[in-house]
Specification:
The protein is an alpha/beta fold.
């Protein structure tokens, strides 16, 4: 067996928490260093160039082979840390390996490994040059985060994390994405960058909006960034016809029932994933009546917030009814509004009939109690009756 491979397998078998692969064999090497860190059941590999960081996740069974692939003939040193030891592997120019184990001092371990205060790993990290983020004023031209924009930097990464939780597990090579009500498209550009540059997925994205000037400006920006498969079209969410199968539907701040039409379209297209941040949920607030629970309608602010929460609860259940595993996640948007709900729905291969019946009964009971007539219910359920 190859000596380097044997040592790497020995290191991984010990049970490591972190690996640093450094000292490239030449200046022509693509990466300066790689950092591997244990994150729950997976290991994340971060590969650093002068301007960018690329990520991939591997499981424990794949880790030794992947580290060998990365390091063989490309790097001269591997440092790994377990709970108690630092493992140091150096490789000469002729490929000879030298291996030693150093015991960590009790005061040394937390700072070296994965203490609670370690720096958070973002999908887009400081130091990466991302043109849309520079134009948005979040990054400087050198890839540094502008201090006053750090909250937006974190919000963008939070949104990408929510996407990445699902996208990274599907191992998709090509995706078709529709972004309904894209607006100025800050996140549309970032999603395109994330899919194509970080995940290395071929992505075709259409941004749809009703404002002609917005579409014009976004089209100019996409051309400027060289995003060839990102295009923008003038159109309404209601009645939009997709020319090809759609994998992902994104809808951020589609006002009031526009969100319902976007979700309805996504369901009819059998999109694999839906990511939606609703806003302006006025519909149920204007319909609500209560005979037994008048407390929920007596105070204006309670009535408004309850109606908004009920709107998204109904949407989530109707997505479950339509074959999607659905979560309602907390998400703070770029406008610094109060905490919003993000709907994340992933299509199931099969949906038990008992689940469909249960979630629909829950919706029907809510509708009956408060005299609601939700648009998505009319589109999905009433038409079937």
């Amino acid at each position: 067996m190859d000596e380097l491979k044997s040592y790497i397998e020995k290191i991984i078998a010990i049970g490591i928490l972190k690996v640093v692969i450094s000292k490239p064999t030449s200046k022509e090497e693509r990466y300066n260093k790689l950092i591997v860190e244990k994150q729950n059941d997976l290991y994340q590999i971060a590969a650093y160039t002068d301007k960018q960081v690329f990520h991939e996740n591997v499981n424990e069974n794949e880790l030794a082979h992947r580290i060998y692939e990365i390091s063989s003939a490309h790097f001269r040193q591997i440092n790994a840390w377990s709970e108690t030891d630092e493992l140091i592997l150096t490789i000469t120019k002729k490929g000879k390996c030298s291996f030693k184990i150093r015991k960590l001092k009790s005061t040394e371990a937390p700072s070296v490994i994965v203490g609670h205060n370690r720096k958070k790993q973002y999908l887009i990290e400081e130091g990466m040059v991302v043109a849309p983020l520079v134009d948005m004023g979040i990054f400087t031209k050198e890839g540094k985060v502008v201090k006053s924009m750090y909250d937006k930097f974190k919000q963008i990464n939070r949104f990408l994390e929510i996407l990445d939780d699902e996208i990274s597990s599907l191992k998709m090579e090509h995706v078709q994405v529709i972004d309904f009500g894209c607006g100025k498209s800050y996140l549309t550009f970032i999603v395109y960058y994330y899919l194509t540059e970080i995940r290395k997925i071929k992505a075709d994205i259409i941004g749809l909006d009703l404002k002609a000037d917005v579409i014009k400006n976004c089209s100019i920006a996409a051309k400027k960034y060289g995003y060839q498969n990102l295009r923008f079209e003038l159109g309404d969410i209601n009645g939009f016809k997709a020319a090809s199968p759609v994998d992902i539907v994104i809808t951020l701040h589609a006002c009031d029932t526009a969100t319902d039409y976007a979700l309805y379209n996504a369901i009819k297209w059998q999109a694999k994933m839906i990511f939606s941040v609703p806003c302006c949920q006025h519909e149920l607030n204007s319909q609500i009546e209560a005979e037994n629970l008048t407390l929920m309608t007596r105070y204006g602010i309670i009535k408004e917030r309850f109606s908004a929460l009920a709107t998204d609860a109904v949407r989530a259940n109707l997505l479950e009814y339509s074959g999607y595993k659905t979560q309602l996640l907390e998400f703070v948007d770029l406008s610094h509004t109060p905490k919003n709900i993000l709907i994340r729905a992933v299509r199931r291969q099969t949906t038990p009939s008992e689940l469909k019946e249960k979630v629909l009964v829950e919706v029907n009971k809510l509708i009956e109690e408060f005299k609601f007539n939700p648009t998505l219910y009319q589109l999905l359920v009433a038409k079937e009756k």
